[in-house]
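Tokens in:
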């Protein structure tokens, strides 16, 4: 089965960093998609139905919390695993992330090994 992964961040260098961190997954058949804002992310999610989304919280047009809420609650796409990435690590933010349906909440700067291991686990690539 083809695995798809979406990386969403309004900062190009963060998108590139995440892609480089996960690039070995491409050798295992994972297709990568990129978006730089919440609206594009939502469009791509609806078109491509990725298995895994690394989603920045603070973005223009539509923030990550809103994208997550739309995907999980409004569209009912519970099978899409969403990792919220944010510089804000406060407990209140974590709770908000859980309320909108995020599967996991990771703070920046993130550990590349943790990111890769989480992707492998979610995509069942052991």
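Residues out:
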């Amino acid at each position: 089965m083809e695995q798809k992964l979406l990386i969403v961040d309004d900062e190009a260098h963060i998108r590139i960093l995440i892609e480089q961190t996960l690039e070995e997954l491409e050798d295992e058949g994972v297709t990568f998609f990129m978006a730089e804002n919440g609206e594009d992310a939502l469009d791509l999610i609806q078109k491509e139905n990725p298995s895994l989304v690394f989603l920045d919280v603070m973005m223009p047009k539509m923030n990550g919390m809103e994208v997550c809420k739309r995907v999980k609650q409004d569209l009912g796409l519970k099978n899409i695993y969403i990792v919220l990435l944010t510089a804000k690590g406060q407990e209140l933010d974590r709770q908000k992330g859980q309320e909108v349906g995020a599967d996991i909440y990771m703070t920046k700067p993130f550990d590349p090994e943790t990111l890769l291991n989480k992707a492998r686990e979610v995509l069942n690539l052991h």
